[in-house]
Structures are given as structure tokens and as C-alpha cells.
What we know:
Layout: E1 4-10, E2 15-18, E3 26-39, E4 45-57, H1 58-67, E5 73-86, E6 92-105, H2 109-115, E7 130-131, E8 137-138
Parallel strand pairs: 4-6
Antiparallel strand pairs: 1-3, 1-5, 2-3, 3-4, 5-6, 7-8
Amino acid sequence: xxxxxxxxxxxxxxxxxxxxxxxxxxxxxxxxxxxxxxxxxxxxxxxxxxxxxxxxxxxxxxxxxxxxxxxxxxxxxxxxxxxxxxxxxxxxxxxxxxxxxxxxxxxxxxxxxxxxxxxxxxxxxxxxxxxxxxxxxxxxxxxxxxxxxx
Length: 150
């Protein structure tokens, strides 16, 4: 079984490219800084981080492009994939990355803006959705293009 679950912060904004051809596919690459705790010989608890390369495709990549930015905390699930290529100097380079299957936010917008000095500004206030008589909420006009599903 090849299954990975990670939670960490983006070290930079996702880099998104689109494949060539008739049906171009979005490909997003980003790096997660994932905390790692370990115990020193003197018994002290130390903390460091691992920097994990991640790649996502299609709608998952488009979501990352639209909503992810440096510093936010996310959780991803996926699988580890290894590969290799020969660089310009003729040396073989080995790669390891997580192919993302699912990704989600791991903290609230308010927690993120407080931690990073208020650098994130929330979208303009929209009218609150009203409850219809059948128990479903009505979505205001103009908001449907911002929903991550259709």
C-alpha cells in the first residue's frame, strides 16, 4: 500500500503550468514544510521540518492555484512517487514527490491572518444565504463561480 498523509505549511505559492495539447491539464507543484519532532541525547525535545515536494493535477491543481498561497496550513493525502532523469551534466538525478489525491485547508482564515501579520485579507462581505422553506439554503447570485464544485 502506498498512502501518505501530511500536514504542513506551503513554503511558497504553488507553481502551476498547463500541459500542451487539445485538452490541457493543470499541474500544480508546491512544497510543504512538515514539522518533525525528535528527542536529543540529553532528553530535550527538538523540532525541525522536512520539506516535501507535492504535485497535483486537474481540478485539484486548479484549486491550489486559486486558493493556496505561501504560509497557509494544509493537509494532503496521496502517494509517494519516485523517478529519475539525466541532467545537463550527464548525471542521473533521483526524485521523490507526493502525488496529491486530496487536499484541504488545515486551519481557519482568521488563524492564518493572525499568525502572518494580517497579510491575508478576507473577500468582501456577501449577503448571508437565506434558508428556504425546504431546509436548503439559497445561494446568492454571483457566488456560484467561486464554488470549488459545479
